[in-house]
Amino acid sequence: MIETLEGGLILAGALFMFLAALGVLRMPDLLTRMHATTKAATLGTALIMLAVALHFAEVAVVARAFGVILFIMMTAPVAAHVIGRAGYIVGARLWAGTVKDELKPHFDPLTRDLKSGAPAEEHERRPPDEPDAS
Amino acid sequence: MSPVILVSLAVMVLALCLAFVRLFRGPTLPDRVVALELFSSILVGIIGVIAIATDVPSLLDVAIVMALMAFMAAIGFARFLERGGPRDD
């Protein structure tokens, strides 16, 4: 019983990882690639770590396996956010069928200035006559 | 080794190959960083499966270190890109 469950978890995890790799190969631009890899690879790793916890069934190993799951579930969104932001700032081209780019009116690609939604504060924070040396 | 483990290892190695194709021809540097992240996730999975196959629970420590290093590398690459990496458009 435990072994069949374990085998199923391993196979499902491997399949999700394969789907993530397929997505990173086939998707058209950076953000959709990240959309494919982050979630599917996280789920695949979590399933395989569950299988490890089932297989050994000791306290130390189970704690470590759940530690891996927790760590990956906490760090994968952060890493994806940071890479996506860096990709947008560097100027990675979006897919031609992109419907909405909400960051575009707030971002100046030449100075790499990212403005927030509040326009009133922005002039106070900048020194009045600084030469535009950047 | 049971056939389940062999099949899953084969599938994951195939996934590594697909991710390597993206790493090789990814048009921009962020694409390659995404491919590296995927590499590390698949490697954590492979290490987990090998820990099951060989009954060595200490291999989980290797998986933890792998995940940690991948996260640090992603953050480092992103900082580097935002602070004036090459701009391509």
UniProtKB/TrEMBL annotation, chain A:
Looking at the UniProt entry, the stretches that span the membrane are 6-25, 37-57, 63-83
Enumerate the residue ranges of region (Disordered): 109-134
Q: Which UniProt keywords apply?
A: Membrane, Transmembrane, Transmembrane helix
* Span of the signal peptide: none
InterPro entries in the record: PhaG_MnhG_YufB
Give the molecular function GO annotations: sodium:proton antiporter activity
- Domain of life here? Bacteria
UniProt cross-references to NCBIfam families, sorted A to Z: CPA3_mnhG_phaG, PRK12674.1-2
Record's protein name: Multicomponent Na+:H+ antiporter subunit G
TrEMBL record, chain B:
Asked whether the keyword Transport is assigned, the reply is: yes
**Compartments (UniProt record):** Cell membrane
Q: What is its main location?
A: membrane
InterPro entries for this protein: MrpF/PhaF-like (IPR007208)
Q: Name one GO molecular function term.
A: sodium:proton antiporter activity
Per the UniProt record, which residue ranges are transmembrane? 6-24, 33-53, 59-81
**What keywords tag this UniProt record?**
Antiport, Cell membrane, Ion transport, Membrane, Transmembrane, Transmembrane helix, Transport
Protein's membrane topology: Multi-pass membrane protein
Which Pfam families does UniProt cross-reference here? Answer: MrpF_PhaF
Q: Which GO terms describe its cellular component?
A: plasma membrane
Q: Does the keyword Membrane apply?
A: yes
What family is this?
Belongs to the CPA3 antiporters (TC 2.A.63) subunit F family.
- PANTHER family per the UniProt record, alphabetical: NA(+)/H(+) ANTIPORTER SUBUNIT F1, NA(+)_H(+) ANTIPORTER SUBUNIT F
Protein name (database record): Monovalent cation/H+ antiporter complex subunit F
* Source organism per UniProt: Halomonas saccharevitans
> Taxonomic classification, please?
Bacteria, Pseudomonadati, Pseudomonadota, Gammaproteobacteria, Oceanospirillales
